[in-house]
Design goal:
The relative contact order is 0.19. It is built from three helices and no strands. The protein starts with a helix and ends in a 6-residue tail after the last helix. It has one domain. The chain is mainly α and about 200 residues long.
Length: about 200
């Protein structure tokens, strides 16, 4: 009778161990699939951020072209007005007036170049950010793939662990039932110290 109870206890323990192992595998699979989904979402967010940065660089380039064109018109207007004033006053276009006109043209040209450089630099920063983000997105996707693969492996490991528990329990119960050299642990036989 004690052997039957012990065999039932071993079988129940093996069944519980198998259930726990399989359940643990599915829980781990669920967690890894959630992580994979999070990585996919992060990749999509990163790609959208990269596209936004690229578009921002395009906008800045258009602004640069417009501002440069407006500045060029402003420069032409200022120089034309100065020439017209000089012509109305009857002054010759040589010496100091010509030097002033040249200095003014140089200052306006420098101003336009500086403005253009600043806009190009700002656009380049946005393009660089877009490139970095586009390089990150595939890494998130790869991490998602790794989690998906891990999820499949977790289920497989859960089932293998469950099968192992059942086989161990079945082997122990079989050994008890056939009268082989099976030794019951002291706890099952009724004592803590007896082995």
């Amino acid at each position: 009778m004690a052997e039957t109870v012990a065999m039932v206890a071993i079988a129940a323990s093996a069944g519980l161990g198998a259930y726990s192992s399989i359940r643990g595998g599915y829980m781990q699979e669920r967690a890894m699939k959630a992580q994979a989904g999070a990585m996919d979402r992060q990749a999509a967010i990163t790609e959208r951020e990269a596209e936004t940065e690229r578009q921002q660089a395009e906008i800045i380039e258009r602004e640069r072209q417009i501002e440069e064109g407006l500045h060029e018109k402003k420069t032409d207007k200022i120089l034309s007005e100065y020439r017209a004033r000089m012509a109305r006053s009857g002054a010759a276009m040589s010496g100091s007036p010509l030097e002033f006109l040249g200095e003014t043209a140089g200052e306006l040209g420098y101003e336009r170049e500086l403005m253009s450089w600043q806009k190009r630099r700002e656009g380049a920063i946005h393009l660089d950010r877009a490139k970095v983000l586009m390089a990150e997105a595939p890494m998130y996707r790869l991490q998602g793939d790794i989690y998906r693969k891990g999820a499949k492996e977790a289920v497989t490991q859960g089932w293998l662990g469950g099968a192992s528990s059942l086989l161990k329990g079945g082997g122990m119960a079989y050994g008890m039932g056939t009268g082989s050299n099976f030794q019951m642990p002291g706890v099952i036989r009724g004592g803590w110290g007896n082995t």
